[in-house]
Structure formats: C-alpha cells, structure tokens
Amino acid sequence: MAALTFLDPYQASKILSGVIPANKVKRPNWLQSYFSNVSSTEKDTVNFDVEFTAKNTMGMFVLPESDVTPITLNEFGTKELRFSYAKEGLNSPDYEEINVRQLGQQFGTLDVMGNEAANLRSKLALSEQRFENLFELTATNILLYGGYQAASEKHPTIRYDFGRTVIKTSANLDAMDLVPSVNLTTTAVTAPWDSTQSIMPVLSGTYSDGRKSWSNSNITAKTATPIKDLVKMYETAKFRAGTSVCLMSSDAYEGFNFDLITNYKDSSVTTLDIILRSQQDILPRVKDVQGLTYKRSFPLGNGELIDIYVYDGFYHTRSTGVATKYVPNGFVVLIPPADNGVKVYGRIKHPRANYAAMPRWINYWEEPKTGKREWEIHTNFLMGHTDIDSVVSWKVL
C-alpha cells in the first residue's frame, strides 16, 4: 500500500490562494443617483450659472432731483468649468495564471484563450466599479462641501466650487431662517482631499465655544437643539426645492435621537408608529445598498414627514487601501428631490477616439514581438449642481 502524502501548510496555502475568491463588497452608489441628469458635450468647458437667494429689498423714496444707486444683480456669477480625466489600465494575464483550471470549471477541461477572455471581462468590470466609486465620492463631496477636487500624481489639481451660501457666525445662525451650511463645532474641518485648505471657508471652524454641537452634554444643558436645528434645515431645503430626504452620519443620528427621547418623548412615540407603517415599503428597497439604513420618519407639522437615513458606505483609498466612509462623522445633509445634479461627459483626448465626447472609450494595443496586449479605459467627466443652496449640509459634531 502506497504511503499517503499530506501537503504542508505552505503547499496548501499556495493551492488555496488560486481557488478561494475574495469576499465581495457591495458598492455604494446611492448619492450619485442624485446626479442623474447625464449629458455630453463637444465643448472644452461647461458653463455653470450660480445664483444665490435674492434679497427682497425695498424700493427707495427719493426727491425728484436726487440720485440713487443703480440696481445690480445680487450675487450672480458665471463659471466656466473644465473637465477632469480618469483612466484605468488593463494588461494581459500571465500564461501561468490562465493555464490552469479556473474556479467553477469542470475537471479535465482547459481553455487557455477562454480563460484569458474571462480574465479581461473581470478586469473590465473592476474598472467600471472603480469609476463608479469615483463618481460616488465626487457626488458626496459636492453634497457635503459644495464642491470637489480632481487631483492625483498624474493629474493637475482642479477645484470645483459651486458657491454654496455659508453661515459664519452664531449671531447670523440665530437671526437667519435659511441656513444652507454651517459648522456648529469648534473643530476646523477641511474637505478630505486637502489637509490644509478647504474650498468651503465655513468649515474652518466658526464657533468659538461649540455649545450648539450635538453632543449629549450640550443637549442635556439645552444649549444644543438637534430637533430645532433639523426643522431649520428642513425649512431651508423646502424654500429652495421642496421636501428633502435627510442623511445623517451614525454619531449625528445618535445626538438627534438623544434629543428626541430626552426632550420630545411624545414625538418619539409617534415616530415609532410611523416606522411600523413605513418599513414594509421602504426597508426592502434600501437593504441592498451597502451602508444605507432607514432610521425613522420624523413629523414636522402640517402632515409633513422627513425620512432619516444613516449612510455608512465606504470606499478603499487608492494608495493605502484603507476603508474610508463616504460621509464622515458629524454631518447632517438634506438632499432635495429636484434633479439639479449634473454629470457631463466631455471629449476623449485621443485621435483614435476622434476626440469625440462619450462616457467611456477603450484604447487597445499589442506588442507584436511578445503578443502582450494592453487596454486603457478613458473617461472625461464633470459633475456639478445647479442649485447647491437647495442641498443643506451642517457639521454638527
């Protein structure tokens, strides 16, 4: 009887590494759905008109011979924005990689060329997923910060600022009814792409004491008022574009819920009944979006409700692979139902693409001597928002 030979752990590891697939991660793509107004253009720039809420200024009583100041348009400007380029590269797999039975194939079958085609299909799918992750991050930055930045070691830094109105003092916060963006904390906040400078000056920290931030101690002391803050956010969003969906980070929702059960117990019980009526319709639609959780529908009077979600979707950074939340801690964002989010595709900068505008273009070439093939998937896009003040973004923790 022949002796049995067992694989040592190192040999087993080498075999298993080729047959055990990595765990799949659902890709969040919820926020980019608010940028569904998709088009293309042959122009090199896209024109964005930015118009803030006009002041209802009174007319002026004067004597007939008096001079008056000519009327000027209130805070109106035109922005010409250029596109940002993105590419993903693919190459032929090594011969050893495709000259083995692939996962799911029958024993005794081997199709090297078929394996190469399947390898290419997998890489193409990954490239599309990476583009969608980039769109999701871009959409998040626009909604949270009012702009975004396109930059890498192979791309010039281009900043896109859509001119959101920001409140910079506590006096203005208390005096104004419409507050699109404000920072209630003492912590300086910069957009995630830059550690030194944000395109939103308000996020540099405008409150010297931070008493209005949504911490449990501030809520207990009644210097922080999350429920009243949410009403002000809602009124701002309603004035600009109607009823909105509310997105909170996990810690922001904890502060909101603490205020609700501490200071608004009757309202808290009411929202529990609303959850029971809503979950049969809403929960099945959100459970498949990684990181998106429906929390409650909060009544705001006049029969109006606002749906509150927590979004913990994450991406892996290109350089370090670290899992990073799309929506960082401490944010509350109200997103309007109006489709003012824009995604525009520009010209592909390659003569074989005829410099035409299109969502994707695949460049392909082959090394004649070795037979090695390479592909590059190109996209040239710009994302923006035509009414950024209708998106309400507050830093509350």
Protein architecture, described:
The chain is of the alpha+beta class. It contains 8 helices and 17 strands. A hairpin with a 6-residue loop joins strand 15 and strand 16.
SSE blueprint and pairings:
Blueprint lengths: L8 H8 L20 E4 L4 E7 L24 E7 L1 E8 L3 H4 L13 H34 L1 E6 L2 E7 L8 H6 L5 E3 L32 H5 L5 H16 L3 E4 L1 H14 L1 H22 L5 E10 L2 E8 L2 E3 L6 E3 L5 E5 L5 E5 L15 E6 L6 E13 L6 E4 L2
Parallel strand pairs: 1-14, 7-17, 8-10
Antiparallel strand pairs: 2-3, 4-16, 5-6, 8-13, 9-10, 11-12, 13-17, 14-16, 15-16
Helix pairs in contact: 7-8
- Percentage of β-strand residues: 25-35%
Q: According to CATH, what is the topology?
A: phage-related protein like fold
Mean pLDDT: 79
- Helix and strand pattern: HEEEEHHEEHEHHEHHEEEEEEEEE
**CATH-scheme architecture:** Alpha-Beta Complex
User: In this structure, how is the largest beta sheet organized?
Assistant: 6 strands, mixed
Strand order of the largest sheet: 7-17-13-8-10-9
Q: How many separate domains? A: 1
Total DSSP helices: 8
Keywords:
8 helices, about 25% helix, about 400 residues, single chain, five-stranded mixed sheet, globular
Could you give a quick summary of the protein structure above?
This protein has eight helices and 17 strands. The protein is an alpha+beta fold.
